[in-house]
Amino acid sequence: MLNLSNEKFKVAMYIRLSREDGDKQESESIGNQRLIIKRYLKENNLNFIDEYVDDGVSGTTFDRKDFNRLIQDIENKRINMVVTKDLSRLGRDYIKTGHYLENYFPEKNVRYVAILDGIDTYLDSVNNDITPFKAIMNDMYAKDISKKIRSVFKEKQKNGQFLGSIPPYGYQLSKEEKGKLVVDEYSAEVVRTIFEMYAEGHGSIEIMNYLNKRKIETPSQYHRTKGKVAKEWNQITILSMLKNQVYIGNIVQNKKSKISYKSKKIRNNPKEKWIMVENTHQAIIDKKLFDSVKLILEGRDTARFTKHEYLFKGLLKCHHCGRNLQIVLKSSEKKKIKNPYINCVGHEKRGRHPISMNYWEFEKNMIQIIKSICKIYLNDAVFEETYKRYMLDYSEILKGYNIQLLKMQERMQEINLLQDKMYFDKLKGIIQEDDFIRYSTNFSKEKCEIDNKIKEIEQKSEIMKVKREEKIDDEEIKKVVTDFFEMKKIDKMLLYKLINKIEIDTEKNIYIYFNFNHLNIISDNLEIKGGMIEYEKIKF
């Protein structure tokens, strides 16, 4: 305990006001706290050194500008007494508050006084003994306030109010209605340009260069945001905009949240916790254009950025592990020129066999393959023959499935009879208990395997039946196929309309999955090896 007269104490007046306190209680105001502390200092003839004020800072954090200055002055022995209006002004995190009261202040010989709570570490008082409980109550109050604020925010989000301080690029905050977004015509025109260019096949790099070349201000420059300002457009900003539903009139919020009311760390919320409200404001982009862009984005691999927008980038998958194949630049042994190669990156770690294929050769051959398939589809006679053969194959496969199912069902009945006989043999003492358990276990295991196989075959049969009866919009597919077949320079958007994915295996066999079943029928009747068609099944 300190052994000093009041005149020898070098006093720091600490005042803190959080936004919640400021909005709700006049008694917590800066002026009110200052008045109470000054009166206390005067009545006790204490030596005032300095005032430390943190305005608008939550008590759940101790990373405060003036509190840090106070601690520094304690370290420099400029201060040896701290006075607050009450304990909650020091802090509302009971663990950290306890650290300063129980450890830091005593170790530094600092006297602490919370006037209205009757806490004075210089005196032997009952109030000092219940300080930990007061700290816990203050912490619980902060937690309760935090819950109520989050509840209010979520309710506003569910009502479609935009709660951010900076509106999305293309919009501004309404002056008449709080939380309402209104179109900002200048930046909205830039947004339209970005979407239209991407839909026309221009990649994010091309759009980025286009905007930077014309010295169009970035979103942070345009909104004059505080802190770090991006001076040039980048791919991440453009791709984020292309995915943002705000441009079709929807607001998606609650994507992120704080780990706890005490922490500043932010975590991403799972999609099921996102709050999405439709038609909250005027759209900049029509739904059709947004969906077209979405289709292209889903087909591309946007996780890694390269300096070139490859035509088939994002459509390529590993046939073995299902992961996106990457296009990596490699130097050839004879030449120093780097060429793009299709690779399954990280295959070594996953125990997979490597896939390596020259991209330019693949692209050239793949365009010819797709055009060949389109040619077959547009030739009614050839397609009709292919379709009949395909349906015949389906019928044969279905027959095979039915035969397998019949055999498995017969085996299941046989096992049931054997189990019944074995049970009676055990009762008669013909077989021992151990043998019965061993046989029974083996039969049960076999029944389980048969049951799983039956379910698998039944599922495959249903898929076959659905494919046989699947209806296709002939007009839509004919238009897409005709446009692609006649096109001199391939349009990326049209390519993604045609193809869902392309798989490549270690033998360089190609598996094309079209978005239209009729094109899949033709593809199924072709052998594509090493990026080239082997015309074994279909002759032109």
Structure description:
- With 540 residues, the chain is of the alpha/beta class.
- The chain contains 18 helices and 19 strands.
- The strands form seven sheets. It has a five-stranded mixed beta sheet, sandwiched between helices. Strands 12-16-17 form a three-stranded mixed beta sheet.
- Strand 6 (171-173) and strand 7 (181-183) form a beta hairpin.
- The chain is extended, with a radius of gyration of 36 Å.
- The protein starts with 9 loop residues before the first strand and ends in a 6-residue tail after the last strand.
- Residues 22-27, 301-306 and 534-540 have low confidence and may be disordered.
